[in-house]
Amino acid sequence: MNLIFDLDDTIYNLMQPFEKTHRKMFAGKTDADCTKLFMKSRQYSDEIMEGEIRGEIPHEDCFYLRIMRTYRDVGINVSREESDVFEKLYREYQKKISVFDGIEDMFHICKEKKAEMAILTNGRQTPQYTKVQALGLSKWFADDHVFISGSIGFQKPDPEAFWYVEKKLGLKREETWYVGDTYPADVSGAKNAGWHAIWFNHRNWMCPDKKNRADYTVQNMKELTELIQNL
Question: Residue 74: which residues within 8 A CB-CB, separation 6 or more?
Answer without folding.
Answer: 30, 32, 37
